Amino acid sequence: MIEFLGVPLPLFMGQLLIGLINGSFYAVLSLGLALIFGLLNIVNFAHGALYMVGAFVAYLLLQFIGIGYWPALILAPVIVAGLGMLIERFLLRPLHDLDHLYGLLLTFGLALVLEGTFRHFYGVSGMPYSIPDSLAGAQRLMVPTWLTGEDPVFMMALPNYRAWVIVASLIVCTATWILIERTKLGALMRAATEKPDLVRAFGVNVPALITLTYGLGVGLAAFAGVLAAPIYSVNPIMGSNIIIVVFAIVVIGGLGSIGGAIVSGFLLGVIEGITKVFYPEASNVVIFVVMAIVLIVRPAGLFGKGA
Amino acid sequence: MTEPLLKVAGLNAWYGESHILHGMDFEVRPGEVVTLIGRNGAGKTTTLRAIMGMVKNRTGSVLLGGTETVKMPAERVARLGIAICPEERGIFSSLNVTENLTLPPVIAEGGMSLEEVYSLFPILKERGKSQGTKLSGGEQQMLAIARILRTGAKLLMLDEPTEGLAPVIVEQIGKTIQELRKRDFTILLVEQNFRFASSVADRHYVVEHGNVIDEIANEAIDQNREKLTQYLGV
Ligand SMILES: Nc1ncnc2c1ncn2[C@@H]1O[C@H](COP(=O)(O)OP(=O)(O)OP(=O)(O)O)[C@@H](O)[C@H]1O
Ligand SMILES: [Mg+2]
Prior knowledge:
Helix content of chain A: over 70%
Number of strands of chain A: 4
Order of helices and strands of chain A: EEHHHHEHEHHHHHHH
Shape of chain B: globular
Strand order of the largest sheet of chain B: 6-7-8-3-9-10
CATH topology of chain B: Rossmann fold
Order of helices and strands of chain B: EEEHEEHEHHHHEHEHEEH
Radius of gyration of chain B: 17 Å
Strand order of the largest sheet of chain A: 1-2
Distance between the termini of chain B: 35 Å
Structural class of chain A: mainly alpha
Number of helices of chain B: 9
Distance between the termini of chain A: 50 Å
Structural class of chain B: alpha/beta
Number of helices of chain A: 12
Bound molecules: adenosine-5'-triphosphate, magnesium ion
Number of strands of chain B: 10
Strand content of chain A: 5-15%
Largest sheet of chain A: 2 strands, antiparallel
CATH architecture of chain B: 3-Layer(aba) Sandwich
Strand content of chain B: 25-35%
Oligomer: heterodimer
CATH superfamily of chain B: P-loop containing nucleotide triphosphate hydrolases
Radius of gyration of chain A: 20 Å
Largest interface: A-B, 19 and 25 residues
CATH class of chain B: Alpha Beta
């Protein structure tokens, strides 16, 4: 068996894969958080809960109307984005002119309400959600012969669904990045992040833009939720499990930095995975250790623009 | 006499608890260049921001082309054909020059085309890909003026466009204002540089402590030198 840095190659590759998968979720979730933070100036504490709601919407669509994974991957984010826009319009907008602390408290309360509601009906044991047939099975990946010079050696088994999660998250992150950095709407969002009053004075309905952005951000969370459903099952507490780590990642990337959120999401997923190989005891805390170091060395985050 | 394009009457405005404007009265007629002059802190910037709706806490009357706007949010005021070039220029650092230039949406017909804007300010075409705030102060000022020319707004409010700029640039901005007046723009200008103001404007309103305390026609400027020196404290 081939070893890599003293550990069996399949073990190393397996953890790397898990790291990339987690990183995919981290990236999509922290991207949504960064978008929302940019325009609303609040850390959206309801983000994890809306990720969970995304997974539940997919589950309920299947249970009650027989809508399967692929349509749900589009529908659930759209439904949750709609819900998010209602939340923004009717709960958060009245708080715009107050201290941002109020918005933060509101989203925190909302997270508790959402999670509590689903716990009430579904407990905490989790509902299975199966992998779509088209993505069942796995690929056996071999070490390429030009590397070893010998016969092909087994490297890892790559489940098709997990490969898809990575690809889907890369696509969504890239598409969102292009939307923000390369389109007219994105330019308006960036401008409104900097000087909302001036953008309004140019005739742009900034409050509507904020509502739209919140919808987009939580729609991304719901997309991650649907992606996660076949891997982690659908569970009312799935959001609160992941969101603390995602907050740390947003801090590491730099609050409000779009590219930073994506890159640090994948990066920290991988760091976490590799830590699991070499020092498993530390794998649960490594992200927070990185956060502490980044905060000391670069308080604005790896990709943040100053304080 | 033509109907005023902008008629401000009894305008009061507040920042939080502080009462800044105490019943401003003045008007701007179509095609005019009118200045607000006055000492630092007199309330000139606040007047522009209150007209625009950027200072929300305001009472009195602001008629734009006959429409009462004092209760409207800024985005609706803007759509009546008015645009602001703010004192601090307001260039967006996360946007490049072209994005900054094309950011304000077109709100009415009759604005300049991008090509026309570039012929007035060729530098903006050359530096299109640069980050907006990487431009020099003078270039940023031109960008801030240029981006409101495309939108179709007929009334432009320029807040101290010459502040802190070298004489050559000031001269260039003066020429730009002359050019804009030829193209039928109406301009409300805030200025402290009195020489500059008198080279471009038809009338001047003197602002002090949030009030208009005097009005001086540009032709009568020489007779009023002494009074002005006193008003401006120069
Ligand atoms: N955001 C604000 N909050 C509270 N007070 C303000 C604010 N902006 C301006 N003021 C106060 O309002 C008054 C008028 O300010 P304003 O900026 O309108 O003056 P100005 O005539 O434009 O002066 P300058 O020539 O220095 O630009 C000043 O006393 C100023 O301190
Ligand atoms: Mg001022």
